[in-house]
């Protein structure tokens, strides 16, 4: 399968570990050099802003999808290829899923987990078959992975979680799997 666009779900904050921002910059560069468009939440701050800036600095294509409420807070990115303003968070997620060929989940908070679990749920329900890559930078998602293992061992998953989520620890490893 040829990947033309990737949705990246990540934090609107930078987090405390500088490795998160470095990974965002590295991923942005890789996407741009491989001519893969970035589909993301449209923000200008945090890891979200860093990856968009990096793609743009390396002459890539960035499509942001942002709900009206965040435009009102003036957090939209003004220097990207295209910014789509939508009514709410639900429409944002649906549009991001429709525009991408695969998804990468980087460190983030509630919103990032919401986006990740929704795309995995849709995948599980056969609404789509898009790869979901969990970028576990410096073990950020280790506790979540342990919980996924618990969900599986307790019989709450219909299949092994690793059939729906590709676990990757570095940006360099993403395009080699």
Could you give a short description of this structure?
This protein has 177 residues and is an alpha/beta fold. The protein contains 7 helices and 7 strands.
Notes on the protein architecture:
- The chain has 177 residues and is α/β, with parallel strands linked by helices.
- It has a single domain (5-174), classed as Rossmann fold (3-Layer(aba) Sandwich), CATH 3.40.50.
- 42% of the residues lie in helices and 19% in strands.
- It is built from 7 helices and 7 strands; from the N terminus they run βαβαβαβαβαβαβα.
- The protein has a 7-stranded parallel β-sheet with strand order 4-3-2-1-5-6-7.
- Helix 6 (142-153) links the parallel strand 6 (131-135) and strand 7.
- Helix 1 (18-33) packs parallel to helix 2.
- It is globular, with a radius of gyration of 15 Å.
Keywords for this entry:
single chain, alpha/beta, Rossmann fold, 42% helix
Topology diagram in text:
Layout: E1 5-9, H1 18-33, E2 37-40, H2 46-57, E3 62-67, H3 68-72, E4 82-86, H4 89-99, E5 102-105, H5 110-124, E6 131-135, H6 142-153, E7 165-168, H7 171-174
Parallel strand pairs: 1-2, 1-5, 2-3, 3-4, 5-6, 6-7
Helix pairs in contact: 1-2
Structural class label = alpha/beta
Shape: globular
Radius of gyration: 15 Å
The CATH class name reads: Alpha Beta
The total number of structural domains is 1
Low-confidence stretches: none
Q: Which H/E pattern describes the elements?
A: EHEHEHEHEHEHEH
CATH architecture field: 3-Layer(aba) Sandwich
**Tally of DSSP helical segments:** 7
Mean pLDDT: 94
